Amino acid sequence: MLRIIATILGLVTSSAIGLQIEASPHIVDVGETRNLTVKCSTTVESSSKMASLISLIISRSTDANDTNFKELNSINVFQLSGQVIENIRDNQTSTGVIDAYSQSNLSLVWEYPDASKTGLYKCEANGVDFAGHPVAISSTVLVVSVQSDSHVLMHELKNINTKIDVLNNVIESQNRTISNSFDQINSSIQKLEANQQIWNSRFQSIKKHMFTNWTDFENHQYLLSHIRSVVSVEDYETICELFGGYLVEIDSIAEFNFLRALVSSHPEFKYIMVGATDRATEDHWINIHSGTIAHNIQWGQGEPSHDDDYNCMLFSRAHHWYMYEWSCFFQATYSENGFICEISE
Ligand SMILES: [Ca+2]
Ligand SMILES: [Ca+2]
Fold first, then answer.
1. What is the pLDDT of residues 109-132, one digit of tens each?
2. Distance from the alpha carbon of residue 288 to the mean position of ligand 2, in angstroms
3. Is the CB of residue 48 less than 8 Å from the CB of residue 137?
């Protein structure tokens, strides 16, 4: 206070307050530069108009050609006169001391600064001149950034690694697709092998039923048939089995009506055999393939005959294509008889 009064009265020779701002370094090597320090400090400068300092403010413009400065930190004599400040925030350490008439400074330090810390830094000092009028002076310093070759290489390496990751993902995806395709192929092969076993089983069964002897001679196989004087219901069953089915079984009135319509449209037949028999118990009709009771049979007039020698049933033309009880075989030379295979799809 005494100095202020003395200054006003012109009793002391005052030093004018100048200002400078420094950056160290001026060029930031991103990733390599450990610290960036921007320091604003007052100087003794006879040409300056400032007699007394009130505040120091450091601000930054990200564009050297842009004057839109954003304040970073400040100190003033009302809050911190003669005191050292120190605070750390956002990877930035601030230190400073301010004295209206003596040395003042404000420093900002960043560890491992990135490109966002570059730009035009400005230090502004506000105070009063020797006449007591407000006066402001400022100074600026430019900080730029570079990326060292090693960082360029690291960046390229990172890009290459990213591309390799993408390619690896594509390869993994394709491998999964190929693996799925192989699984599907293997599944198909297993189904084919299972079907082959089924067909082999059927052929062996049919072979035994139809032939009494099979012999190889000079890469040919010769199959000698059983003696056949008749064609039996077992023959029909065997042939139906060859096609993956069985001698037709009547399971409903609708199925009976469907079959009757079918056979009645073929008047060239006399009898057409179906797959049911009462050979175990007379009048107790059982489906041969499934072993279930044969319901829904509509007999022709006078049928069934209840004859223990006749144990199969046929659609009969003479009975208007209703059911007829007859023997389970026909003479092999008799040509007006047929049968129907039923195959589940
Ligand atoms: Ca049926
Ligand atoms: Ca019978």
1. 998 888 889 999 999 999 999 899
2. 14
3. yes
